[in-house]
Amino acid sequence: MPKADFFTSLGLFVVKDFFDLELCDKIRIESRDAVNNAASVLGKDGKYEVIEEIRKIKYSQVSEETINKVNSCLIAVKPKLEEHFKLELTDCETPQFLRYTKGDFYLPHSDSCNTDNAPQSVKNRQVSAVIFLSSESEELGEEYYGGGALTFYGLIKDPLWQKYGFSLNGEAGLLIAFRCEIWHEVEPIIFGERYTIVSWFF
Ligand SMILES: O=C(O)CCC(=O)C(=O)O
Ligand SMILES: [Fe+2]
């Protein structure tokens, strides 16, 4: 599996210890114990709906304090994202706290959508950000999971490589940011629980 530096060399933005392990543990435990709801996707009619054949994940309803803390960390990195992607960004969406248990996944998708009926907030998205709170590992433990690779497509423009997926090894504390149009998926979780936070800059 390629290392984080490989994704940097292909133009993605990676910070390895964006969150320290103490903060990852704290938010992961809060996310595990919070009320969970099935996550939705944008349906063809431009409305959000739960379609478990496409995105089988739970949202965790963490505290306002945790949302604000993560939000301020994301806003603090905005100037670096603007410089990296050569874009002007206004703000980021309220972060979503995601919990994946065995068998959960998210099929290949892009985070932006330009169809006429898409909500303006989705049309405005420019950069996606994912923060890992747990690590992919062969070890068993609360902070580890197996499977669940975040896999990116079309990173190499050559037509021969268009359909090739590059999988990132999830590591607690790592932030990866990428242009919203890039296709990506979360492969099914084989064991353990996978925790991430996602948000979108616009
Ligand atoms: O959990 C992840 O690694 C990414 C999730 C994702 O792609 C999304 O929610 O749009
Ligand atoms: Fe996504």
Description:
Strands 1-14-9-17-7-6-2 form a seven-stranded antiparallel β-sheet. Strands 5-8-15-12-13 form a five-stranded antiparallel β-sheet, with no helix packed on it. A three-stranded mixed β-sheet has the order 10-11-16, with no helix packed on it. It has a single domain (4-37, 56-128, 139-201), classed as Jelly Rolls, CATH 2.60.120.620. It has helices at 4-9, 21-33, 64-85, 120-124, and strands at residues 13-15, 36-38, 41-42, 48-49, 55-56, 58-60, 96-100, 105-109, 127-132, 135-136, 144-147, 150-153, 165-168, 175-179, 184-186, 189-192, 194-201. By secondary structure, the chain is α+β, with helices and mostly antiparallel strands. Bound molecules: 2-oxoglutaric acid and fe (ii) ion (FE2). 2-oxoglutaric acid binds at residues 98, 106, 111, 130, 150, 184, 186, 196, 198.
Shape: globular
Percent of residues in beta strands: 25-35%
Q: Tell me roughly what share of residues is in helical segments.
A: 10-25%
Number of DSSP strands?
17
The CATH architecture: Sandwich
Write the CATH fold name: Jelly Rolls
Write out the CATH superfamily name: q2cbj1_9rhob like domain
Termini distance?
30 Å
Rg from Cα: 16 Å
